Amino acid sequence: MDEIAAPWTWDEADTDEEFPCGQLTDTGLTAPVSAEDLAALGLRGIQFGSWDGRASGWLNTDAVGLCCGGVRTETGRVYLVDDATYFVKADARQRLPFADAVTPWVYAEHFIEHFSLDEGIRWLREVRRILTPGGLLRLTTPDLARYVDGYRLNDGFYSAHRERLLLLGAPPQEVPERRAFMLNQIFQFHGHQWIYDEEELIFALTAAGFHADSISRRAYREGAVTEVAALDRSVRNDETLYVEVRSPGG
Predict the structure, then answer these.
(1) Cα–Cα distance between 146 and 149 in angstroms, integer?
(2) Which of 4, 62, 143, 145 is in Cβ range 3.0-4.6 Å of 197 for a Cys bridge?
(3) Same domain for 47 and 108?
C-alpha cells in the first residue's frame, strides 16, 4: 500500500462525510460477507478504519463512505474502487457485516481509540468472531505511556511529534509548543475517546475473549506476518503502540 498522509484535522470525520473517488463498481456482494466471497475477490484480510489508506488485497472498511460521481457506497455492500481496491461501509459499533470465521487477518491502525472503552471491547469481540481459529489481529493505537514519558521526561518526543503534525498540515498556531497541550491533544482531539497503554490494551483484549498468552507487543512493521505488518504507516510510528493477538482455537 502506498504511504498516504491524511489531511490535517483535529476532529473525527462525521459519518455523513464521504471520500471522493473516480469509479465505484458494485460487486453484488452484501452482508454477511463470507469467506468464499473474500476468496472469490482474492482478498486476504480485513482492514478497519481504512480512511484514506485503502490497501490492495484487503477488504477495507470505514464508517465514512465513498462517493464517485453520483454513486455512493451503501452500508454492507462490497464495492470495487477505481478498479484497484475493495471497500465496504460499516459502523464498527454495530454487528460487523461478516460471517463467522471469515478471515485469517484483521488490521486496524489508530482505530480503537475512537471508541469508548466499552465500545472498543464490543468491537474486539466482533473481531474475534470473524477471525478464523488462530487468526491474527494486528492492532495499533497511540501509546499513552509514550505521551506520559514525553511530558515527564521532556525528552524531545513532543518537539519531534509536533513537526510531524505540521507536515500533515497543522497550522503552527494550533499546535503550541507546550507539553501540557501536547499531552491533552491526544485525549481531546481527533475524535479520540479512550487512550491505551499496553496494560489497558491487554485488558480490553482479554475482556473480549482473547487469551493473554497469545498477545505480543510488536515494533513498527515487525510482526508474525510480514504482509500484515507492512500496512503500518510511517507517519505514525513515533507515537504508536503495536500489538498482535491470535484468536482462540488455532
Answers:
(1) 5
(2) 145
(3) yes
Q: Which domain holds residue 180?
A: 144-188
In angstroms, rounded to a whole number, what is the distance separating the alpha carbons of residues 63 and 48? 9
Provide the CATH number for the domain around residue 29.
Answer: 3.40.50
Looking at the structure, do residues 159 and 210 belong to the same domain, yes or no? no
171 and 61 within one domain: no
Residue ranges of the alpha helices (H) in 106-143?
A: 117-130
If one counts the domains in the chain, the total is 2
Tens place of pLDDT per residue across the chain (250 aa): 333 334 434 444 444 578 889 999 999 999 999 999 999 999 999 999 987 779 999 999 999 999 988 889 999 999 999 999 999 999 999 999 999 999 999 999 999 999 999 999 999 999 999 999 999 999 999 999 999 999 999 999 999 999 999 988 889 999 999 999 999 999 999 899 999 999 999 999 999 999 999 999 999 999 999 999 999 999 889 999 999 999 998 7
Cβ 140 vs Cβ 167: under 8 Å: no
